[in-house]
Write a structure and sequence with these properties.
The chain is of the alpha+beta class. The chain has eight helices and eight strands, in the order E-E-E-H-E-E-E-E-E-H-H-H-H-H-H-H.
């Protein structure tokens, strides 16, 4: 809820965790901005950018953050808002308790302020080859069609926007762990279900059977509860766990 000042003008109070460089210590800076109906957290950060003055009336540097689509599709504006990792573009100020506390996600290294380095997540996708390799196949004509029943649940997995919220909420993903995280595991299920992607199925499963792979999941189920797109991540982890077990038995039997 917005608060009213002595002049009856509603304002929004924000406590933002900031960090000037990747190696400097974090600190908290407080801001108070004019209230506007239907404003989201991105709008509040843009207000500070237009007038970078903190609540003490001191001139300061604008807060740095990342955003792109502003409609919860790109995943770039992930941050911790009032203690929960989520998308800033869909976080409406009217629905947030004041003071609104904003901080960068802790699972990833901070570059500056709310900007983080998500290289860990992208490296995980490279590790499991989370794409459909079509080089050299374009001249073979259209590939096989995916069954409608499979396409429907595969579409749900394709909604992943690499936002990193599932990794942030997972207790097994941290700087002391090499766990690949739920997003990459779910993407293995997605691309292994594709008729063309299935050609690399065993290669993806092998990647998840290495150190830091699927065995690192502790089944806390935080990921599926926090995913902004409602992706059935734990269902994917269970399915891939079954697939890796079957693949292991086949290797033992020389099949």
């Amino acid at each position: 809820m917005a608060e009213a000042t002595a002049t009856n003008q509603k304002t929004i109070k924000l406590h933002i965790t900031r960090q000037d460089t990747a190696d400097s210590s974090p600190y908290t800076e407080e801001f108070e901005i004019p209230y506007r109906p239907n404003m989201n957290v991105i709008g509040a950060l843009m207000e500070i950018q237009r007038n970078p003055v903190n609540s003490k009336g001191q001139k300061t540097t604008p807060v740095c953050w990342e955003s792109n689509c502003l409609e919860e599709v790109c995943g770039a504006c992930s941050m911790i808002i009032n203690g929960k990792p989520r998308q800033a573009c869909s976080a409406l100020l009217d629905k947030l308790e004041q003071p609104i506390r904003i901080a960068p996600m802790k699972t990833f290294p901070v570059v500056r302020d709310l900007v983080i380095n998500r290289e860990r997540m992208f490296s995980a996708l490279k590790r499991v080859k989370a794409w459909i390799p079509i080089d050299g196949t374009y001249d073979l004509g259209p590939g096989p069609r995916m069954a409608e029943t499979k396409r429907q649940w595969a579409y749900e997995l394709s909604k992943c926007m690499t936002c990193g919220v599932c990794l942030e909420s997972c207790p097994n993903v941290n700087d002391k762990s090499s766990f690949i995280g739920p997003a990459a595991i779910s993407q293995v299920r997605l691309f292994n279900a594709h008729p063309t992607g299935e050609m690399n199925k065993e290669e993806r499963l092998e990647a998840l059977m290495q150190d830091g792979g699927i065995e690192g999941c502790g089944n806390s189920q935080n990921c599926v509860r926090s995913c902004p797109k409602g992706i059935p991540l734990t269902t994917s982890i269970a399915a891939i766990n079954k697939d890796t077990t079957k693949h292991l038995f086949k290797k033992w039997l020389g099949m």
